[in-house]
Structure formats: structure tokens, C-alpha cells
């Protein structure tokens, strides 16, 4: 594990030298650039809201502060070059457990109940055709068969995905391993 400066080990030790949380940015800004907690919070807000202009405005302040604190402009630039793209991925440390739990639950459902999972996913994104097409493609890649019955009504409106498990009707044979998309009026 390497750090841009040994002083950063106390802040970034638990994250293997990476700034993962918004709080990491604040602590690095106070240590390296001499930011007050209010200034560090302004930088955190700019990153969390992905306000590029505010982030760029903070760069010169951060680099100047790093030089004043005795870390030098070069180190200030190097650290800020890591902070800037971090804005796309930053989240508060308090959210880490919740995100991890949701990620684990989704992965477990996807592996153990792939048909039902993909049906629910497609249903939840029925109004977003771009995302629905991505997930439908993923369902196909997962070896789920997909069938799209065409509605004969003049204006089909909302797609609805539902798993078909050992049920039959006059139009569809029993099927336990596919996701069938149907249309219904909203």
C-alpha cells in the first residue's frame, strides 16, 4: 500500500490508501491544504453534487493551501487530481453498509432466482426503455429465454414483465425458465 505522503496513512489507512468516502476528502483537505471544516465541507458538497465548476474553483485554493502547509504544489496537484474524478463515485461512509447490503441481496437474488429477479428488474424499469433494453439484453446473456407477445390492441402502453412458472394458458405453454414480457394498459 502506498500513500502520496506518509501523513495520509492515518486518514486513508482503513481504505488501503484510497479516498472512498466523502469524509476522506474533508480530512485530507484539512490536513494537506489547511482547509477549515467549513471549507472542507464546501469541497465535499461540490464533489457530492458533482458541480464541476465548484470543484475546479477549489483546485487553486487546495494547491495553494498545500504549499502553505509545507506539502508543496506538486503534492497538492497530485492529490487534487485524485479528488476531482472521485466526485463521480463519492458517498458518505454512513451509507457504505446500506449499499453493501443492497448489493449483496441483489447479487444473491440474481444468482439464486434469476428469472424472478430479471422479471422484477424489467418491471421496475418499464417506463425507462433505455434501461429496460440493457436489462433485457442481460437477461438474454444470462441464458434466460425472452418472448414478447404482441398485443392486438390499438395502443399498447406499458410493458410488464412477469415470470411464468408452470402455468399454462391457451397462448403460452408452461415454462419455468424464461421471462415473458407482455403489454398491459396503464
Topology:
Blueprint: H1 9-12, H2 22-32, H3 37-48, H4 52-68, H5 73-86, H6 96-112, H7 114-124, H8 129-141, E1 145-147, E2 158-163, E3 178-184
Parallel strand pairs: 1-3
Antiparallel strand pairs: 2-3
Helix pairs in contact: 2-3, 4-5, 6-7, 7-8
Q: What does this protein structure show overall?
A:
By secondary structure, the protein is mainly α. Helices cover 53% and strands 9% of the residues. It has two domains: 6-94, no CATH class; 114-184, no CATH class. Strands 1-3-2 form a three-stranded mixed β-sheet. Helix 6 crosses helix 7 (114-124).
How do you describe this structure in short?
It is built from eight helices and three strands, in the order H-H-H-H-H-H-H-H-E-E-E. The chain folds into two domains: 6-94, no CATH class; 114-184, no CATH class. It has helices at residues 9-12, 22-32, 37-48, 52-68, 73-86, 96-112, 114-124, 129-141, and strands spanning 145-147, 158-163, 178-184.
Give the structural class. Answer: mainly alpha
Beta-strand residue percentage: 5-15%
**How many strands in all?**
3
Alpha carbon gap, first and last residue:
55 Å
Q: Indicate the overall shape.
A: elongated
With strands numbered from the N-terminus, the spatial order across the biggest sheet is 1-3-2
Topology as a string of helices (H) and strands (E): HHHHHHHHEEE
Mean pLDDT: 80
